[in-house]
Each structure stands twice: as C-alpha cells, then as structure tokens.
Specification:
33% of the residues lie in helices and 15% in strands. It has 209 residues and is of the alpha/beta class.
C-alpha cells in the first residue's frame, strides 16, 4: 500500500512509503478488536468499590418483633437490607477486573485496527520532525497544517521525543506515543493516525511476527 509522505506544513514531500499489507491491509477481525479493547478498559478499573453489608453495620442484634402474629413479614435484625440504615444486599466488593489475552490475539487486534483505519483513509505518514523547545503553539501549528483541529489524533513516534510530547500535552484530543506504546484502544479511539516515518519499521517488525 503506497502512501504519500507529508511534512509538518501539510505539504506533499514527493516521496511515498510502502505500508506492509500484513499490517495495514488484512481482513479485520472485529472480535479480536473487541477483546483487546475490553481488556484495556478493564485494566483501567481500580476495582476498589465497596459497600457495607449487614455484618458490617453498627446496630442492635435483638429481634425487633415477635416471629408470629403481627400480620407482617418475619424480621430478625434491624441491620437487614430491607430496612433504612441497614446493610446493602449483594453490594459491590473489591475485585480485580483484569484478564489475560493471548499475545497472538492482541497482535491480530492491532493489525485489524490499523487495517480498519487504513481502509477509512485515516492514516497519514509524516516525515520525522522535532521542535527546538517544548511549545504548545508549535504543535498547534502542525495540527492546523494537517487539518486536525478539533479532531482526535494519535501521533506515533519512532522513539521518545520530549519536546514533541511536552508540546502536545496541553492539547485536548491529541496524544503522542511511541510505536512500543500503541494499543488497539488508542488506535480505534482516534479519528486520524499520524505515523512518523521512523515509527513504521518498529510497527511493522512488531506486528509482522
């Protein structure tokens, strides 16, 4: 798959790169994408939710009324969940929501996500760039040149670049990651994927296995 390489001004450099069909042009597996996104979101959950049950409520333990003859239901404790101030029945308890996923499934999910975005013409290849110092206005200028203002965008770098990362940090909707930090969720969540040339080799070598 041939894709034109743009510069940070949004201009065509006259060069093209060949995106691997094994990564960017496979038949997407929607279930693998679903599983990987589900795992990512599950791993974000703290699982610290807790409510007090009847055994943890402070209150009298005496039987509040006689067993028979009142014309109402039997009741043995004021701490029962049916009474105001009682413990919660079947309330949430701390738990771990994470689950394991096969590496091959995760790899298939990321390739499927890239293929979906490539099919939607949502992938842009950008030549390598850097800023002399971290400045938000520099990154804003790049977004404007690429017509990415008010759009969710994911910039994928070949290696860590603090100047670019810090310049993007205050801009809502834009995220900068390295090729090793990619996830299916981040790919699917973005409206446009901007791949820096130096990131292509790492992406294709990791996902072509």
């Amino acid at each position: 798959m041939k894709v034109a390489v743009l510069d940070i001004n949004g201009k065509d450099t006259g060069r093209q790169v060949d995106l691997s069909n094994e990564v960017f042009a496979i038949e997407p597996n929607n279930h693998a994408v679903y599983l990987d996104v589900k795992q990512y979101l599950a791993n974000q959950r703290q699982g610290t939710h807790k409510s007090k049950e009847r055994a943890e409520i402070s209150g009298s333990t005496r039987k509040i009324k006689k067993q028979k003859g009142t014309g109402t239901a039997r009741a043995g404790s004021i701490k029962s969940g049916v009474f105001k101030g009682g413990g919660r029945m079947f309330g949430p308890r701390p738990r771990n929501y994470s689950f394991k996923l096969n590496k091959n499934v995760k790899r298939l999910a990321r390739k499927s996500a890239f293929s979906i975005k490539a099919n939607d013409k949502s992938i842009v290849v950008l030549e390598d760039f850097n800023f002399e110092s971290p400045k938000t206005k520099n990154f804003t200028a790049v977004l404007k040149a690429l017509e990415l203002e008010n759009k969710k965008s994911l910039f994928v770098l070949g290696a860590t670049n603090n100047n670019v990362y810090l310049s993007s940090r205050n801009i809502k909707g834009s995220e900068v990651v390295t090729s090793s930090e990619l996830s299916t969720y981040k790919i699917m969540n973005a409206n446009r994927i901007i791949l820096v040339e130096s990131a292509l080799e790492g992406i294709e070598s990791n996902l072509s296995k």
